[in-house]
Amino acid sequence: MFRPDPQLAAQVFPPSHRNPVPASRYNLVVIGGGTAGLVCAAGAAGLGAKVALVERRALGGDCLNVGCVPSKALLRAAHAAHAVREAARLGVHATLDRIDFPAVMARVRAVRQAISPHDSAARFTGLGVDVFLGEARFTSRDTVEVAGGPLRFARAVIATGARPKMPDIPGLADVHPHTNESIFEIDAQPARLLVIGGGPIGCELGQAFQRLGTHVTLVQSNPTLLARESADAAATIHAALLAEGMAVHTRSRILRIEAGGAPDGAHRVRIHGEAGAAVVDVDAVLVAAGRQPNIEGLGLEAAGVAVTASGVTVDEHLRTSNPAIYAAGDVCLPQAFTHAADASARAVIQNALFLGRKTVSTSAIPRCTYTDPEVAHVGETSGAGIVTHEVPWTDVDRARTDDERQGGVRIHARGGLVVGGTIVGRDAGDLIGEVAVLVARRVTLAQLATIVHPYPTRAEAIRKAGDLHNRGRLTPAVRGLFERWLAWRR
Question: Are 448 and 418 spatial neighbours (Cβ–Cβ below 8 Å)?
Answer without folding.
Answer: yes
